[in-house]
Amino acid sequence: MDRPTLYIANKNYSSWSFRPWMALTAAGIDFEEVLIPFDYSGGNPDIKAVSPTGRVPLLKHGALTIWESLAIIEYVAELYPDAGLLPRDRTERALARSVSMEMLSSFRALRSACPMNIRRPKGRIALPDGIDADISRIETIWRDLLQQSGGPFLFGTFSGADAMFAPVVNRFDIYDLVSRSDTLAYMVTMKAHPAWRKWEEAARAEPWIVPEDEV
C-alpha cells in the first residue's frame, strides 16, 4: 500500500492539523509529514501549490487528495480498519461521527476567543458571550461518552473522536476554562498520550510566532 503524505501547518497553532496528525500517529500508521508554516499576511504560496482550498491539513495518497480534518480521519479509518480510529460497534460509530461533526461545525465562540497555542503559559482571559455555552456542551459530550464507555477515552480506547477534540483539550488547559474533575481527568489522559507528547515537543521547538494567535 502506498504511504500517505499528510501536509500540516505550525504545530504550535494549527488545531486543524493537530487532529489528523494525532489520529494517524496514535493509530501507528506510517505516513510522511510535510509541514508548511502559516503566513497570515498573504497566505503561504507553498500551501496553495498543494492544496485546492489553500489550506491544510491535506492528505495525499497515490493520485487521491483529501482535505478537511474529519474527512482525512474517516478515509484513513476505512483504509486501516484495524487501527481503531472508528469504534467497531455500529451505534458507537454513529455517535463518534455525530460528536466529531459537531466539533467540526460548532463552538465558534470558543474557537475565536481562545486559539490553540501549545506554548502559551496557562492563564485566564476575559471571555466574550457564548463561550460558557460552548464549554458546557463540550463537557456534556465528554461526560456522557466517558460514562457510557467507562473511559479513559471517549469510546474506551483512543479513536478519531478523541483526535477531533484534542485542540479543545489544549484550549481548556491553557486558558484555564474548566474545573470539573471528570473533565480534568480526561484532559490528563489525552495529554499523556505518546502522540500528544510528540506533537507538543515539536510545537515547543518551533521558531515561528503568529501574533494573531498570541492571546
From TrEMBL:
Domain GST N-terminal stretches: 4-84
Gene3D superfamilies: 1.20.1050.10, Glutaredoxin
Signal peptide, first to last residue: none
Entries under InterPro entries matching the protein: Glutathione-S-Trfase_C_sf, Glutathione_S-Trfase, Glutathione_S-Trfase_N, Thioredoxin-like_sf
Pfam family name, one: GST_C_2
Protein name: Glutathione S-transferase family protein
